Design the sequence.
């Protein structure tokens, strides 16, 4: 698997990242261990998690696997903080105290003294951005994180944070955001900001919340997210007629190339400028192996251009910009 530079930093990650949102919840310890082993054996390095995944259980599973199944130095650990559980549910807290408390708790669950990349999970309108940035600076200078970045932030916030961190050499390294053939809103402001500032992009949900696999083309499978009461709202925005036209184009391209639709969707994304890694989240080892098969696919130019056209944001998804 190709190793890619994250922006203009010295950090390098595998072109596919391993997402762990289902670990400790829908993915048990045995399946998680098999996924991590298959991922590392395929040349993967980037393991993406967060303090909130499984209420911390995803990080605990990773920590247990790093005790003997996989060497710590074989993976690039990325975790996120800034969302905390409260009596009334999750709440955003990107204050200095909140972020550093999240990071310390993550390190304890992961069983390591540092993460390779620490991200702020989402914007916090109640905390000045300068305070949030000060926590990232301290995460690096204290040795708890080697690199820092932002997740799900707009371009202006990314530019401001990069400017604040540039003066003392801490630097902002990465932006994690949703990006796929069904969600190209990043191309409006985040991708240009990343390019101008030398930041690497990590794409979450590169398969359009599972829709680009083609499994929803005819019906909603009983074991899918869209059939789940608590996850259906996550998938529903990508089950409309416009999304369907993109999925059909991906399926047509896949048929012509003799590949699976998800391989075509991932290959399209990995060819986009600035994308350092596409983070694939798999519930089962079989699902992960299907994604790993995409790394050797280079789309012909005419196929890439056709998919560009059918998914063009200004035509297909104005409501998501």
Sequence:
């Amino acid at each position: 698997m190709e190793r890619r530079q994250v922006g203009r930093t010295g950090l390098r990650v595998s072109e596919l990242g391993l997402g762990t949102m289902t670990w400790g919840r829908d993915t048990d310890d045995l399946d998680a261990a098999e996924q991590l082993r298959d991922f590392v054996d395929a040349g993967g390095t980037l393991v993406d998690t967060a303090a909130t995944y499984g209420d911390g259980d995803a990080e605990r599973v990773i920590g247990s696997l790093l005790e003997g199944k996989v060497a710590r130095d074989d993976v690039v650990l990325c975790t996120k903080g800034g969302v905390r559980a409260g009596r009334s549910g999750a709440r955003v807290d990107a204050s200095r105290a909140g972020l550093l408390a999240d990071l310390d708790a993550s390190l304890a669950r992961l069983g390591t003294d540092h993460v390779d990349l620490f991200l702020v999970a989402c914007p916090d309108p109640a905390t000045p951005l300068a305070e949030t940035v000060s926590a990232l600076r301290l995460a690096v200078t204290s040795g708890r994180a080697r690199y820092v970045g932002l997740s799900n932030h707009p371009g202006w916030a990314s530019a401001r944070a990069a400017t604040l961190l540039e003066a003392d050499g801490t630097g902002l390294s990465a932006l994690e955001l949703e990006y796929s053939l069904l969600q190209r809103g990043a191309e409006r402001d985040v991708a240009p900001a990343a390019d101008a500032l030398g930041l690497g992009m990590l794409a979450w949900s590169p398969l359009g919340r599972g829709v680009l696999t083609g499994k929803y083309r005819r019906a909603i499978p009983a074991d899918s997210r869209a059939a789940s009461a608590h996850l259906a709202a996550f998938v529903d925005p990508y089950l409309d007629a416009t999304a369907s036209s993109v999925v059909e184009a991906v399926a047509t391209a896949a048929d012509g190339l003799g590949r699976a639709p998800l391989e075509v969707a991932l290959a399209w994304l990995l060819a986009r400028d600035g994308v350092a890694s596409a983070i694939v989240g798999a519930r089962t080892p079989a699902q992960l192996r299907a994604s790993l098969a995409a790394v050797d696919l280079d789309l012909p130019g005419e196929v890439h251009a056709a998919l560009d056209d059918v998914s063009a944001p200004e035509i297909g998804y104005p409501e998501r910009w």
